[in-house]
């Protein structure tokens, strides 16, 4: 792939970054700097990604934490590796047990939706398999930020304040007090520009570093987590933690106009992006800013997402296989439904019978696409006292309908929103990309890939281009900067277009492309948040 293929002009808020020795792209400048520090100390891209991810648990706790899940796509020595570090439900939980506690659907907050966290295991596995430096060296910048503190950046401060106001109204039980002690120690959220530190967070990171993650799953931290969960009627136990390890998996892909777009297999929702690309590749898109382009994009994503929500769960429980959902016949069947008017989506007829994303690359050709999250911002609202560990609420996505593919079961992994992406052509790696943000993620992947491949936009332009998000039925949310004339034309085609009041719902992305010939790195970072690229 020629890099000048991606130099086509498009109004961008920031300039595309170039470097040769290494690059880290993420949503927080301090986290990017942590990754660069590790690269300059002799670490590789994987070391830099771990350092960045750990730093993000400190400098962007509104989106992720030590108690969340993670996924990664790693390119090393000509091969792409996948890591699924999402955790299962507790072995003692069941639909009946949850209903006995008075719930008719999985709650959003509290101890019930907490699943086994995968983040510490992800760091340990990545370090063990591909890292050059010790985990102690790699986590040092994050520990320093937690101990010494750092000033709150603008977008971080905005969402921290919103989360505090929401939690103050809805989190009333004793089990939530440690969240307020940890993240609102002055009786309020920290203000933009104000210093914030978390000594407990630093101690936990140090314990994880010194034990290579063992203390979190089979040591002192595991004991504290399980004890607190038991005290407040939760299901997660020491045994659940002790039995967990992140899993290496084979990535899945689809061919799109001569490129291969890669995702993590289910239980992740990356399959949705691939399904949408498969449907869309049957159309010709000659112009980006055209109503027919947006109409067909939205309809393709609408159909893919409807099926994704209906079928995606742990692979063994899916009623249709990945191969079936990525087949040409499936894509044609869904494509044939797309006409000139917006349709009301129904799931494919079965055959009978809150998140941070980062990318890193080094001068050896190693590249990594990494994502981690607590879900819905701060997650469950449960913080383990004295540790700074905020636990995720991934279990909220389980269904309490026993007939649903994603029905709650003991020890099961739920449908998962966070997804890393990767792009290749032939046998060459072009690089990592991702867009975080709940159910926006596969939609962001889909739009960024089409911006790159169909419309030849450089990384920064591909990220800056106005986004849309299919919500449900015929409802489509568009950014404030979305072209008004196209929004009106889409409405005339039957789409229920709603203009967002801000761009917070449209995800946060990062991209790094590598020229296979020269090794030059080209990166873009998210203009919708405090995004930054650190490079040398």
Automatic annotation (TrEMBL):
Keywords, comma-separated and alphabetical: Acyltransferase, Hydrolase, Transferase
Q: Does the keyword Repeat apply?
A: no
Specify one Pfam family.
G_glu_transpept
The answer, when asked if Transferase is one of the entry's keywords, is yes
InterPro entries according to UniProt: GGT-like_enzyme, GGT_ssub_C, Ntn_hydrolases_N
Q: What is its EC number?
A: 2.3.2.2, 3.4.19.13
The domain of life is Bacteria
Q: Which GO terms describe its molecular function?
A: glutathione hydrolase activity; leukotriene C4 gamma-glutamyl transferase activity
Transmembrane residue ranges: none
What is this protein identified as? Gamma-glutamyltranspeptidase/glutathione hydrolase
Gene source species = Rossellomorea pakistanensis
